[in-house]
Amino acid sequence: MDDSLYELLTPHLASTSPTTTLSRPRAPEQDATTSRYLNRLTTLSLESLATTETQSLAQSSHSTLLSLQALSNRSHKVFITSADNLSNLRTSIPELTRESRRLQAAIPKLDEEAVQFSTKYSRTAENVALTRRKKAMQLARNVDRLSDILELPTLLSTAVSAAAASGTAGASSSTTYSSALDLYTHIKRLQTLYPDSPLVKDVAVQAEDAMKEMTTNLITSLRAQNLRLAAAMRTVGWLRRVAPELENLHSEGENGSSEGALGALFLTCRLANLVSTLEALDPLRELADQETQRRTRNADKQGGQGQQTERFLKRYIEIFREQSFAIVSLYKNIFIPDQSEPDLATAGLRGLDARAKMASSRQSRPGDPLQCLPSALSTFPMHLVQLLTDTLRTYLPNIQNKTTRESLLTQVLYCAASLGRLGGDFSMILTELTDTEDENEEDSIVYEWEEVMRKHRALAGRLEQLTGGNSTAGSPGGTLRSASPVH
């Protein structure tokens, strides 16, 4: 019936005014809305169709139009975009087809590359690229630690330079040198932990250069003027830590105490300081040389000669006495602290037994050219005395005044007694001042020296009787009294 009614109404729908925008409805079998409306028409009466249906349709049309307008106002951008996409749909679909085919063709190549990447960076096999990547990542994670390690040589050099600038006597230098040694110890520990690391090896080489500079500064500080015991002990202690190879050299000190090469180094530095101090007397020495030239040229033996030589020798003996006592005293306090009154004269006797023991160990060290060196202090006083006797032998004949000569010889006697308190009395050595060039004059000097020694022995004996003492050890008379008289 819906189809019949639709056919009946079709001519009227086709005759609609051309100005209308309504299109022809579709057949009921094609549109459910049309079918429902035709079924509704069959339920209405003729009067309703003639009167109310037209108004109902107009009202529904107007309501639908308002809804469409509201929808267009709200969603006009979506409609425009949909229209544009719809217009591009003809070209988009073929392009999508081409791209999908291209992707389908690239899938085997992508799978091949994925398999190759998985094989190349597999953790189950040893891979150079993967190892290099791991090292790079580890380097990135530890960049702060590496930066700290690279700064160690700079910090060490700065500490050494700061300590050298402040000297060894101050507390700041002690702290700075201690910090430098702690840094060097830390670097050596890193070298032990990572022996194959090129970075640590490079840092260790730079640290060794800084330690060489520190060793040079410490050795230079041992030549300083007025070196005190505390500063000397600190410096030697730092040298033992910085250059342990100096202490490991085969050397046998007094009482079997090993001092290595540090003892000889210390005495050499202090001897250099003594020589430089004595060189400050070069102006007086030049005046004394002029008097020597006049004496040898004119053979003038008259009194009143040698005033400049007297000034030179007096100052020379004063410096020699002070410095020689200080050098030996510092050495004993630093390297032989367990001996209260060692005697240098018996050092050789004690060394004989030590040499006998060391001779038995030579077969175990056949390639060592420095086997069993004696203590440096056993020969050092002889070198000091040689400096003094050479000077006396050269310049003492310039002084013709007997009183002046005896005064200088008395000063030398006190110098010998001062060094004798440490076991280095050289008063008897001065009796060997005989020179073949002017034998009579030198014999006169020796005779005067013997007279000075006799006078002091007599004075020491009277002082001992007055004080009632049983010993005069440590005094010039006590030292001289132990020596046999010279005839």
UniProtKB/TrEMBL annotation:
Gene Ontology cellular-component annotations: Golgi membrane; Golgi transport complex
Compositionally biased region (Low complexity): 11-25
Compartment(s): Golgi apparatus membrane
Keyword flag Membrane: yes
Entry membrane topology: Peripheral membrane protein
Keyword list, A-Z: Golgi apparatus, Membrane, Protein transport, Transport
Annotated region described as Disordered, given as residue ranges: 11-33, 465-487
Alphabetical GO biological process terms: intra-Golgi vesicle-mediated transport; protein transport
InterPro entries: COG8
Record-linked PANTHER family: CONSERVED OLIGOMERIC GOLGI COMPLEX COMPONENT 8 (PTHR21311), CONSERVED OLIGOMERIC GOLGI COMPLEX SUBUNIT 8 (PTHR21311:SF0)
Family: Belongs to the COG8 family.
Protein name, entry field: Conserved oligomeric Golgi complex subunit 8
Originating organism: Aspergillus ruber (strain CBS 135680)
